């Protein structure tokens, strides 16, 4: 089912998706949220006592969450794949693994060198190889299935071992040839190396190494095959999985409810400030708040979220992506601040410098790398200021113009370094303009492809912020599609408690 299809069974969910993608009026929003938006109860805000869950129920919910998170990652992340990662060299775990593996293969070699040879461990390895090879086969590959079972028949190999007649090199050669037929082209060189290995124990060891790589290839092929199916059915799948989690863990929307409640309080505060500053406003009238605006404000807060705190449950699957966007946005904000300060202080000196904005980004980005992880921002800003002064002076010298004075350079570096200070006016201004751009982006209909106008002061990062905004809007719009019914239920109870109470009473009396 395509993601942009209307959900016929969830009319209110569709209504929410439409209203959250456009600036709908308050009366429409009130009507939208006064009707139930989910066929099942999905809010923890009920009169019933909390349900005590068992450990098994908790584990079942955890498995549901893992499956749901994995499916989401596979569908939305085109680069998602399983990678072969070993323990770091010289690490404790890596050393232990190396010792254990060496002991195993040394023991196998000593057994095969006995007179007569001891084959029991080797037979178990052939049995394991057989099962792995069979796992690579598609349904209907009967001929090769029967051949593998016939050649690697462990009962027959044991009988041969009793008479000291096991042809281990012959079995290994058959295994390598079969792997060559089943592997992906990227493993052809590994197969060639196996054929060039003479030592039988080392050969078996390398066979298992390549089989592990082939299992990884098979898993990634399966992921690639599943991705289109998951993508087209992801809205229904994620909503269903989250409903299952909610039924097993009724508190699974507590953080989401708090997140929306905070957004409502922020909006009420904003409306109250506007009312107090407007002459003739009726202070006794109850403020009307748009649910769309509340939800969008909640999404905007995610761009400044402290990810040491737990994120709302409905956004767990996108937590890493949102955190990465926040970190990139912080870098872009600093670059915009540096550009604004530089243009204000030495604008006349750089007006004729070609591509100065690109030079500024090339200077700043490497120095701002990792700025959200135990990062000394003031030191980085100082280094950026010094490099900008050097770049400007070089350009001025090349054009035969006087370079910046020591006082001008000191002032420029100082102003750039002060960006790190709390309530810095330049930083506050750029932050407001970024928020304005992102707010405008969320107010656009989800199917509209054009970008809102980038506010003044952000032209230096226009390309980057439009790309980042597109990624952010994609996450938000998909999240609205999936969790619209749950958000609608929470918003209805928080914004229109009287109507929610009447509906609950009506349902209770009818039952």
Give a structural overview.
- This protein is mainly alpha-helical and 511 residues long.
- Helix content is 68%, strand content 0%.
- The chain contains 19 helices and no strands.
- It has helices spanning 11-20, 26-34, 55-76, 92-112, 120-135, 142-151, 154-162, 168-182, 188-195, 200-248, 254-277, 291-301, 319-350, 356-368, 377-398, 406-417, 425-443, 462-495, 497-510.
- Helix 13 (319-350) packs across helix 14 (356-368).
- The chain is extended and about 95 Å long.
Features:
511 residues; 68% helix; 0% strand
* Number of beta strands: 0
Q: Gap between N and C termini, in Å?
A: 34 Å
Q: Counting H and I runs of at least 4 residues, what is the number of helices?
A: 19
Series of secondary-structure elements, N-terminal to C-terminal? HHHHHHHHHHHHHHHHHHH
Low-confidence stretches: 1-51
Share in helix: 55-70%
Question: Measured on Cα atoms, how large is the radius of gyration?
Answer: 32 Å
Oligomer: single chain
What would you call the structural class? mainly alpha
Note the overall shape.
extended
| Most strands sheet | none
Mean pLDDT: 80
β-strand percent reads under 5%
